[in-house]
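=== Structure Prediction Worksheet ===
Name of assembly: unnamed complex
Input type: mixed (protein and possibly other molecules)
Chain count: two
Listed entries:
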Amino acid sequence: MKVPSSRNKRYLSGADWCIAALSQGTAETTGRRCVFQIALFLEGAPDLDRLAAAFKTYCDRFPLLWGGPARCWCLAPYWKSPAAADAGRPIHIGRGTLPEGATQADVVRQIEALTNRHAAKRGWRTALDFLQVGASECVLVFSFDHNLFDAVGAETFINLYFRHANGEAGDAEFPPARQTASAQLDQWSQKFKSGQKINRMMRRLAEGATSWLALPHDARQRPFRFRTVTFSAEESRQIQTRAFAVAGYLMFTPYVLATAAAVFRPLFSKREEPDAHFVVSVSTDKPKSAVRNTHLFFNDLSFLYFRFPVEAAADRNALAGIVRDQLMSQAKEGAPAAIEDANLLMRIFPARAYWKFLMLFYRNRLASFGFTCLGESAVRVPAVLGCRVRDQIHFPVIPTPPGIGLILSRSGGVYHAVLSYIEGILTEEEAARLMASFRARLLEEPAGRSC
Amino acid sequence: MLKLRAHVAMLIGTGSEQVATDRPLHLLGLDSMGFVDLLVFIEKQFDLSLMSSGLAQDDFASLEVLTQRIVQTAQT
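=== Predicted Assembly ===
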């Protein structure tokens, strides 16, 4: 069968369409879309005019930044790109300042404000804001539309931009200006079978009550908030050692997810049915391939779901064992590939209808919280215009519901954890306690081994 | 060993010849999802129930050690 494809349009994948549906639902609930920020902390005071000019010339090489979703005659959604950058709609480049000695918490408040401002706007795909902190530090806050970028793609995009700003990037390093992909309109029976498999899996997961934190009734008026926890290089090494001790060869993700579940659980128990189980949705980067080095745009993600019964709630080792078993069984069943196939099928629905379907299916409780664990950052450029890149943190808007999630990222071997939530779902004190407890549990000497 | 090496190379985004066979797998850049992917690949490729055979962290000390473990499991 001839599969429709075109050099003029980039057909969206199942993961792209799932993100589009989640973003649409979040917009309906909160008035804001699924966007994310990556903050890069630079030492010193770089030449911001040069950086801004370089960002403009860099973005001009990718006309798809001025594009948007459209639907083909064959019903497959695609990304419609103009032939060239739209000079009438410049990419946003903003500037702000903070006094010398401003803390990371001050910077995070500024990033929150940027997140809420950008997420409420439509029609943009990337933006850059400079926050100059006295003369000693400059924070580059990149904003990304999740419809066009996943976390690793965005890091790769930043890495290439830094090389471009430094005058190090040759033309051969740039991916083609026009992106193409097959519409994947073949193997329908395989896709239907995958859909059935995912349906059964989801029904198992959704059996009984799913614990969740009720969204505030005035969610559209509430900002998204972040609470960060950073670890030193030594602490990051300790966490890895503890992850090995508790989760064995499966290492980091099961350890951190089990720790998060153990720490989050008491908060949920206080608010909701105490016997409800936990469901955690986990988005993961697909295993990296050689192609990944040129992957800048669109979503290359897998989704996994974990269900924690109430009786295992407090015991991290037991939780890590549950993660291991469910991780293995989902991998063996080919769940990530089946989810992608099922999402390909769901592309026949508009994003809004797909969202409504998900809400109906899960009785408005998609998950208790979201979780993402990123590998080492793809930003490898050590300095930009002579200023050392000191650190990097991800700040995502979590789809709402659940409206609360945890993301772990790693840069230069150092871990950062960010709790992202919509105000009103948690108090500031609860968020602070949660993250302090999460930090303490991650660094705690493990009691034994589960895997 | 060649198949394992090629699969690990695919997972970490490098060429087979650059995958050291005497280094711990996590130091090669394999993360949790990579380990799971590798285990599923081994089970399917060699028709083994490796995961239920009491795997230990030491079995992942290197690709050479993992290969020995696969051979042992296949023989029992």
